[in-house]
Amino acid sequence: MAILSQLSIIHLLWAAMVFCQYEDYDFEDEYDQEPDHQHPRYFNPNTQAGAPHFPFPVECARECFCPPAFPLSMYCDHRNLKTIPNIPAHVQQLYLQNNYIEAVPAGPFTNVTFLREINLSHNKIKSHMIDRGVFAKLSNLVQLYLQHNELEEFPFPLPSSLERLLLGFNKISQLSGNALEGLPNITMLDLCNNFLDDSVFKGKPFSNMKNLMQLNLCNNKLQTMPPDLPSSLMYLSLENNSISYIPENYFNRLPKIIALRMSHNNLQNIPRNTFNLPNLLELNLGHNKLKQVFYIPRSLQHLYIEDNDIEIINVTLMCPSFDPLNINQLTYIRVDQNKLTNPISTYAFFCFPHIRTIYYGEQNASVNKSTQLRIPVFRRFLTPEEFDEAEDDHETHDHETEEDHEAEDNYFHPYF
Fold first, then answer.
1. pLDDT by residue (tens digit) across 105-116?
2. Would you say residue 177 has pLDDT above 90?
């Protein structure tokens, strides 16, 4: 009996020790460490949530890395590759960015049937070095990243399964009439930083893209607004072009627009009700030639009209009527580098009761001379509830400088 009692005590001590190990173990420790191989930020991190764990080592190109935890991915990025290695048939995510690849031949893709993502960004690929149809045969391809290459033409043909296509930072100057045909599932198309001009709109290339939600055309050579955009569009980026006007009623066909970015253009006058959009949250018209403000939709939260020629902020134009049952949601206005000599009328706080910040900064009130209003940054007093909600932001914003805003304006992330 004594021996049994001793064994029972030992058993209890062992159980307690095991329990304490789990009790003291911090499961978050694993997630605090950065993984060696990160997905690019625009990839969906959940694409492999249901990926099976193979009980045996999977095939992998010798130039690449295939982590056991992600058996459907092959990482070949940042490896000074000049050619695409052979791709095992089971691979679904292929990462080849930041190499010296110049061509996309059909050979490496011969046995690939399940490929869903390809990242070939930051290489040296030219259009004539892409074998015709190499992408089109990939019937499960959803995301294709070809930004920061040397493409002169839009890659064609592409598979109808494609949903996200990034072609920014290339040398594309034309879109052939059928380039975008047969892509009914595209939701995001990035063509920023190319050589596109108004001639690309002659064939109305975007009109049949019924699921398109985000279109990026920033940093091109456009002089007019792109016509016949699909009504599904929610995010439109047109920064750094030479657009001088917005046709009246232009946005009537685009009621779902949430964010519109048109800074660094040549806009001078905005028709009064141009932005009468029920879902618009962000409007950026900074660095243009505007002389007066315009109607602000009730949904708008952030308005950027810095570096224009505005002398007076006419609040009545922005808010012609007040509806207590449908209050304006505007919270932030940036108006620095205009020609203001007086702060915005206090009527603005009646019309826009949610305003928290008006950034005045420096004003170009006289020729070749900057002046500063008495209050460079106005901040509305917050209720205790609002203060708790914005507490984290206050620490940063309280130290805002002109340089901070200039740096913020120069940085543009085309993926909203």
1. 999 999 899 999
2. no
